[in-house]
Amino acid sequence: MNPPEQILGEFGDGRVVKMLADMSKEVEQVKLEAERLISDEMFAAALEKLCDMERRTRLSADMNSNATVQVNIVSVCFSEKQYDILKEQIIALSKKRSLMKYANSKMVQTCVELMPSVSCKKAKFELIETLRKTTEGKIYVEVERARLTHMLSQMKEEDGDIEGAVKVLLELQHQDLKFKYYKLMILLDLYNKNYVGVSNHYYNLSETETFHDKSKIVTFLKNAVVYAILAPYSTEQWSTISRMSEDGNFDQIPKYKELVQLFIKEEIISWKKDILGVYDKLKAWSVSSTDYVEEYVESQEHTLANLEQLQCRVGEHNMRIVSKYYSRIYLNRIAELVDWNVEKTEEFLCKLIVNGTIPLAKICRPSGVVTFVPKKKSQEELDDWAVGTVDVMEKINKVTHLILKERMMYKNVHSFCEEEDSDEEDWFTDTLFKRQSSEYEDDFDDPDENTEDMYVEVDETTSESLSESELKAIESEMEKKSVEPDKTSEVEVVFDRPFF
Question: 139 burial class (0-12, 13-18, 19+ CB within 10 angstroms)?
């Protein structure tokens, strides 16, 4: 009984079919006949017989026989150096209906193995491009396509087309070659002391799908942080550490992320307290020993150089912070802030002035004063004074306008309140007058008697003639009227007695 791999075949569209017929014997006969025809210089007839057998084995779903025929077709073309026909056959075999993955991969592997036998550089270049085009997007021939791409890159490099060789490699998505590329770039940038580039390469390695081991990914992330901090201050370096502080991948290494935060905050970093007291225990400046880093990177000398570089970066950060918060400061005070002696502080500050990190700083050695803000010219100071004076006068004018506005509003409100108070006093007097008048009218028996003098007398003696209980009754009635208005005419009450 045939094993399962001989009776089952997988088509290019993913279908798995059962072999309908075993055509291995017919294939052997056709191979012998094709060899005889080729020896008789009848290449076209031999190729026609092989193509016919390829079609029959493919329709019979005979995976092994179909692979044998495809391999024989390309081998014959290579041996006879019929490269134009070979390109046509490669394209035709890759686009056949019911294409079998196993047979197609065997054909591509044979082409890759026989490629060094091609002596003509132009023909070799065209064959590689044809194979790369037909294998694009096919996972089962990914390795072969990567090897072809490597061959093409080497050919371009030999011709002096370095940019073309790099472009071809960058287009390739194969993870092993991607890792090899970043490994070489890390060594190159370490040699050139381009630490920002090293950091970016390590970060890209952490995103490579080849590494499923979490410990390896953590190692790459740690190295990315280390070299980003070791890089001199620049726009690119600042954007790199800012991205790290917001990237969730670095939450796996919290201590290293805290170190990044130290260089983002606009605060002085203490070398002894913030760095040596915390991060020296992590061995952060010795790149972890892995199979993916050269011995140069792991050497003790490299580690010590990293520590010295880190101290320079801390000093650079502290100098930038001092220049931001001070316009003039004594040199010995700067040395105290950065935990250095005066000589080292002066030397390091001079380097920062020369390389453009703090370009406007000036050191006065006799007085020991460092100025971070350049002295303005007389014309600039006069212009600043004029602008400031205009600004002050505009603000004074605005404040004066607001004060006058408040006084007018206060005056209007105060006069309105006085009118309301006078209305309440008149209402109180009228109430007393009417009440006392009604009492006096009840006491008089003679209706013809002149009452004009009585009204005058009442008006003058009302407050004296009322008893204390009557005054309290009138006051309570007034309070009741003001506190409990008539609810049936609420709108009238509101307009009649406005509240302030």
Answer: exposed
Show the 3-state SS of 78-96: HHHCCHHHHHHHHHHHHCC
For range 359-369, the mean pLDDT: 85
SS3 363: strand
Chain CA centroid to CA 274, Å: 27
CA angle 345, 346, 352 (to 5 degrees): 90
Beta strand 369-371 with 362-364 is antiparallel
Closest CA to 142 of 112, 179, 167: 112
- Measured CA to CA in angstroms, residue 477 lies from 116, 427, 471, 481, 483 at distances of 121, 12, 10, 6, 10
Kind and range of the H or E run holding 370: strand 369-371
The sheet with strand 362-364 has its strands ordered as 328-330, 369-371, 362-364
1-164: which CATH topology? 1.25.40
CB within 8 A of 183, min separation 6: which ones?
A: 292
The pair of three-digit structure tokens given for residue 384, joined into one six-digit string: 């600043």
- Amino acid identity of residue 348, one-letter, is F
Residue 436 half-sphere exposure toward CB, CA atoms < 13 A = 22
- Tokens in use for 320? 């930038």
**Angle (CA) 455 457 459, round 5°:** 70
For the chain, give the longest Cα–Cα distance.
Answer: 168
Parse the chain into domains and list their residue ranges: 1-164, 183-325, 378-441+452-496
For residues 336 and 331, give the distance between their C-alpha atoms in angstroms, rounded to a whole number.
9
Three-state secondary structure of 377-440: CHHHHHHHHHHHHHHHHHHHHHHHHHHHHHHHHHHHHHHHHHHHHHHHHHHHHHHHHHHHHHHH
Q: Which token pair is 125?
A: 């270049």
Closest CA to 131 of 114, 102, 117, 120: 114
Q: What is the DSSP string of 274-290?
A: IIITTTTTTTTTS----
**pLDDT tens per residue across span 298-316:** 444 455 567 778 888 888 8
pLDDT, one tens digit per residue, over 392-426 is: 999 999 999 999 888 888 877 777 666 665 655 55
| Whether the Cβ atoms of residue 432 and residue 462 lie closer than 8 Å to each other | yes
Looking at the predicted structure, is the pLDDT value of residue 102 above 70?
A: yes
342/340 Cα distance (integer angstroms): 7
Please give the full DSSP string across 439-485, using - where no structure is assigned: HHHHH---TTS--HHHHHHHHHHHHHHS-HHHHHHHHHHHHHHHHS-
Q: Which tens digit of pLDDT belongs to each residue from 159-195?
A: 888 888 888 887 776 666 677 788 888 889 888 888 8
